[in-house]
Design the sequence.
C-alpha cells in the first residue's frame, strides 16, 4: 500500500453557529495515496446578530449543498455518502403535522392544513388524495404510504455535489423544516456500524500530489431570516417590507464575507464554510498538522 501525507487546511466559516464544517484526517491503516477517505461533518443551528439596542436577526437554513472541488484527483465511484431519514422519524413528522391540521383547518376548508398538503405534495401524492392520506396517518395506517416514505436527508446529486435537506421540506424531522445538528456523521445507507463513514473516497489523476476543497453553500432562498428585538408598532405591509429589506441586507453581509475571503460562489448562492485537504507522497519528516498514513 503506497503511503500518503495528508494535510488539513481550515475550514473557515462565514456564520459558524448557523453552519459549521469539520474535516477529519484519515485514520491510520484506512488509506493510501490512491484511495483517501474524505471524511467531513456539516452541522447546523442558528445564529443571532444583534446591535446594542437589541435589534437584529436570527439566521438558519432549510437546505444546503456540499460541493467537493477536486484538483489533480477525482471522486471514486464507490462509497459516496447518502443517508435516508429513518422511516419512524418521518412517520412521527406526518402524525404531528396531521394532528396540527385537525385542530387548525386550512383556510380553504378542505380539512388538510397547508403544511400537511405541502408535505404530501413533496412526496408525490396528488392533492385529490390528501384527505384520504390524512385519514390513514391519523389511524396509524402507513401501509398505503410506504412507497412514498423513502426520503434521503443527504443525497448525491451529481457534479461532485451533495444536497442536505429537501427542496420543499428542508429537514422533515423538524416541524420548522430547518436544519439542526450534524448530518454526515450518522452511518450512511448500506454501511455497517463499525465501518468507515466518509463523504467519499478520492483517487489521484496526477502522480505526486493532489488536493480537494469542500464548500458548504446555501441558495439564498433557503436562508431563513427572523427579526429579533422589540417589534415596532407599524402597519403589516410596512413590517413585511422592512423584514424583506433586512433579509436582503443579511444576505449582502454573507456575500461581503465571501468577498473578503476571496470566494466567488455561483449566482444565487453564498458560501457558508470552506476547507480543504492536500495529499502527497511523503518525501520529508512530518510537520505540525501533518500525519503519514
Sequence:
Amino acid at each position: 500500500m503506497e503511503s500518503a501525507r495528508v494535510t488539513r487546511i481550515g475550514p473557515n466559516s462565514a456564520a459558524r453557529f448557523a453552519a459549521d464544517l469539520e474535516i477529519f484526517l484519515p485514520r491510520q491503516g484506512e488509506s493510501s495515496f490512491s484511495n483517501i477517505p474524505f471524511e467531513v461533518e456539516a452541522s447546523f443551528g442558528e445564529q443571532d446578530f444583534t446591535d446594542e439596542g437589541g435589534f437584529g436577526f436570527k439566521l438558519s437554513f432549510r437546505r444546503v449543498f456540499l460541493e467537493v472541488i477536486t484538483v489533480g484527483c477525482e471522486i471514486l465511484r464507490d462509497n459516496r455518502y447518502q443517508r435516508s431519514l429513518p422511516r419512524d422519524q418521518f412517520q412521527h413528522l406526518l402524525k404531528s403535522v396531521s394532528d396540527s391540521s385537525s385542530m387548525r383547518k386550512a383556510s380553504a376548508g378542505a380539512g388538510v392544513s397547508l403544511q400537511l398538503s405541502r408535505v404530501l405534495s413533496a412526496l408525490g401524492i396528488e392533492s385529490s388524495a390528501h384527505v384520504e392520506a390524512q385519514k390513514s396517518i391519523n389511524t396509524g395506517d402507513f401501509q398505503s404510504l410506504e412507497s412514498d416514505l423513502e426520503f434521503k436527508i443527504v443525497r448525491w446529486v451529481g457534479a461532485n455535489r451533495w444536497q442536505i435537506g429537501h427542496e420543499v421540506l428542508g429537514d422533515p424531522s423538524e416541524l420548522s423544516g430547518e436544519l439542526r445538528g450534524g448530518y454526515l456523521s450518522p452511518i450512511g445507507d448500506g454501511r455497517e456500524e463499525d465501518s468507515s463513514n466518509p463523504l467519499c473516497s478520492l483517487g489521484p489523476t496526477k502522480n505526486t500530489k493532489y488536493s480537494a476543497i469542500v464548500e458548504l453553500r446555501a441558495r439564498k432562498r433557503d436562508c431563513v431570516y427572523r427579526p429579533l428585538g422589540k417589534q415596532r408598532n407599524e402597519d403589516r405591509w410596512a413590517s413585511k417590507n422592512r423584514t424583506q429589506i433586512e433579509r436582503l441586507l443579511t444576505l449582502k453581509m454573507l456575500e461581503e464575507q465571501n468577498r473578503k475571503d476571496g470566494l466567488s460562489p455561483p449566482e444565487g448562492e453564498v458560501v457558508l464554510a470552506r476547507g480543504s485537504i492536500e495529499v502527497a507522497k511523503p518525501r520529508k519528516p512530518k510537520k505540525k498538522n501533518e500525519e503519514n498514513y
In short: The radius of gyration is 22 Å. The chain has a mean pLDDT of 81. DSSP finds four helices and 16 strands in the chain.
